[in-house]
Amino acid sequence: MLMEKKVEIIPASIPKVQKKVVIYARVSTAHGEQLESLFAQISGLTRYVSMVSSWRLVDIYIETQSAKAKSPRKEFARMLKDAESKSFDIVVTKNISRFGRDTVEVLESLRELRKLNIRVLFEQENLDSGEIDNELMISIIESIAQAENESRSENIKWGIQKSVASGKSNLMNRKCYGYDNDENGDLVINEEQAAVVKRVFNFYMGGMSVVGIIRKLQELGFKSPTGKGRWSKGSIDNILTNRKYTGDVELLKEDENSGYYLVEDNNPVIISEEIFNAVQKLRKDRSNVVIDEYGNKTRSHKKYSSKKSAEFNEK
């Protein structure tokens, strides 16, 4: 007797319709930190789009125009024209201030895109124009516009942080006294200046005060980082505290207690890690600033004397 075979019917799968997505990124200039911010915007938003399987990135509109009203935004205009031809379904941008130059322009653009059934997503504010009614959108945008000036510096900082974290920032190869940039933009040692940097560390390790080092360098005829014969206390302090001389670079460090990025083995070494750390300890020991348990800074009565260091001679 033949067994009846069980036959299972598997229906054909209906392919998901992918939404066509575009990115709009804008900075006010095509220079320096603004370009870092632009790169970070595009990189971050591309990752944002890739995380949604039903989205497909079809275009990126990149604007490097001022926020001034008279400055034409060619890419923005191209995006609106493409919208009319139904070239995409969703616009993704970093925040409201990047999308429009003022409240009126933002609202007019959103209304125009909404008529075409196109949503605009603002990543930073976590807003979707397709899910918010006009009155609420107006209220939100006006509130954000009021705080826009306060957040502008944070926008630039955000861009730098993204770029630094990706390891593609040019900040780590910014030239300082003791180094030059080669044709590729990498740091190389300036032997003449590096010799002065070593003297500064040796003088300080030998007991000289910052004032004593200034006098010594001027006696020896060494030019300061500005190219002048007169050295300043700030120039010496910058040399003594610049970790870049050890080959490592600290980025976005605001104070001793703040977080920062450390890029190791970034450039050729001028000062060893041991000497650099020893100098930082000496600086702390010599400081007459005392911080109490409540974080208050006061001056102690001890004074550091450089009389002994006046007789120090470099070997």
TrEMBL record:
<feature type="domain" description="Resolvase/invertase-type recombinase catalytic">
    <location>
        <begin position="20"/>
        <end position="167"/>
    </location>
</feature>
<dbReference type="GO" id="GO:0003677">
    <property type="term" value="F:DNA binding"/>
</dbReference>
<feature type="domain" description="Recombinase">
    <location>
        <begin position="176"/>
        <end position="289"/>
    </location>
</feature>
<dbReference type="InterPro" id="IPR038109">
    <property type="entry name" value="DNA_bind_recomb_sf"/>
</dbReference>
<dbReference type="GO" id="GO:0000150">
    <property type="term" value="F:DNA strand exchange activity"/>
</dbReference>
<dbReference type="InterPro" id="IPR050639">
    <property type="entry name" value="SSR_resolvase"/>
</dbReference>
<protein>
    <submittedName>
        <fullName>Recombinase family protein</fullName>
    </submittedName>
</protein>
<dbReference type="InterPro" id="IPR006119">
    <property type="entry name" value="Resolv_N"/>
</dbReference>
<dbReference type="InterPro" id="IPR011109">
    <property type="entry name" value="DNA_bind_recombinase_dom"/>
</dbReference>
<dbReference type="Pfam" id="PF00239">
    <property type="entry name" value="Resolvase"/>
</dbReference>
<dbReference type="Pfam" id="PF07508">
    <property type="entry name" value="Recombinase"/>
</dbReference>
<dbReference type="InterPro" id="IPR036162">
    <property type="entry name" value="Resolvase-like_N_sf"/>
</dbReference>
